[in-house]
Amino acid sequence: MVGFAELKDEFDKLGVKIVAASVDPIDKAQEVADEVNFPVGHSVSRDIANSLGSYWEDRRQIIQPSEFIVGADGNVVACSYSDGPLGRIDAGDVIKMVNFYESRK
C-alpha cells in the first residue's frame, strides 16, 4: 500500500481513487489509513472474500490480497488474486495502465 500512497498525487491527477480493505477491526484499519493517504475499510470477513472469489487463509483468518482496477463505468478492468506473499499489483503499473486506456479513447 505504501507504493500507492507514494504515488497518490499522480493518481489524483488521473482522477483515480484508491481504496483498501482489511480484516482488521475499525481502530486498527484506521491506524493503517492514517499512515497512507487513502481510505482503508475494515472487518473483511470470509463471506466477503468468498463473494470476491478471493483466497481466505484459515490459519490466520485473513483474506489474501485481491486487487481490482475498476473503470469509470464500474466494470473491472483488471484484477489480481494472490494466495501468498507474491503477486501484488504495482502502483506504477496501474498508472501506466490508466494512461494506456486513456490514450485509446
How would you describe this protein?
The protein has a single domain (2-103), classed as 3-Layer(aba) Sandwich (Glutaredoxin). The model has no long low-confidence stretch (mean pLDDT 94). The chain is built from five helices and six strands, in the order ααβαβαββββα. The strands form three sheets. It has a two-stranded parallel ribbon. A two-stranded antiparallel ribbon has the order 3-4. With 105 residues, the protein is α+β, with helices and mostly antiparallel strands. The N and C termini lie far apart (29 Å). The chain is 40% helix and 18% strand.
CATH class call: Alpha Beta
Helical content band: 40-55%
CATH topology: Glutaredoxin
What strand line-up does the widest sheet have? 1-2
CATH architecture: 3-Layer(aba) Sandwich
Q: Mind telling me the CATH superfamily name?
A: Glutaredoxin
How many individual β-strands? Answer: 6
